[in-house]
Specification:
The protein has 86 residues and is an alpha+beta fold. It is built from four helices and three strands.
Length: 86
């Protein structure tokens, strides 16, 4: 089990998320919606994504942030699960 501090300070947490290695390299970061809402709030998080010119997706219990300005294209849709070899 990992150690969690008694109190998480919102501003440093948000800074650490958006200054992570993957974010700096223009990659993708993922955070649980519940954590974002609990620590900094949905509006603050999404405003920071917008300020940086990035895009965010919400899927299930996660925010997925594309840390670049490239377009997002859905490459598979539908309700059936993907199968290996299909």
């Amino acid at each position: 089990m990992s150690y969690l501090p008694a109190a998480i300070i919102p501003e440093p947490w948000l800074r650490d998320v958006f200054e992570s290695r993957d974010a700096r390299r223009g990659g993708v970061i993922r955070r649980q919606v519940w954590d974002v809402e609990r620590i900094v709030g949905r509006d603050v998080f999404l405003a920071e994504v917008e300020r940086r010119g990035w895009q965010a997706l919400e899927n299930g219990a996660h925010f997925i942030v594309c840390c670049n300005a490239q377009p997002i294209r859905r490459v598979r849709g539908g309700t059936a699960p993907a199968r290996a070899g299909a």
